[in-house]
Amino acid sequence: MRYIRYAILGALGILLVSVCIANRTIVALKLLPDAVAEFVGMNPSISLPLFMVVLGGLGAGLVIGFIWEWIREHKHRRAVSNQNREVKKLSREVKKLKQQKHEGKDEVLALLDEAS
């Protein structure tokens, strides 16, 4: 199974390198449309190879997606945290009640009573 995973990752790496080699053309990446840039009085742009623009967009999409999911799952993590807190509280209460029940009894009889 490990070799299959390495083969798939190797094929993916070769595919990415071939896409990068095929798209080395320099493109101008503008942050604002021309009309807005004229109105604002500045024209922020940068020249990059096309493959960097594409891979950068994919990377930014992945990061945004991960952050979005982390925020979306917050309610589930909070519910699990509350349940864990409640379980700990109840287990402490059960332990305390067992100690109170066996107070003043012989230790051997208390152990036998707990086992049954």
TrEMBL record:
Question: Can you give the residue ranges of the Lipopolysaccharide assembly protein A domain?
Answer: 46-94
Q: Which UniProt keywords apply?
A: Cell membrane, Coiled coil, Membrane, Transmembrane, Transmembrane helix
Which parts of the chain span the membrane according to its record?
46-68
Q: Which residues form a coiled coil?
A: 73-114
Q: Which InterPro entries match?
A: LapA_dom (IPR010445)
In terms of Pfam families, this protein maps to: LapA_dom
Origin species: Pseudophaeobacter arcticus
Domain of life, per the record? Answer: Bacteria
Q: What is this protein called?
A: LapA family protein
The UniProt record lists the keyword Membrane: yes
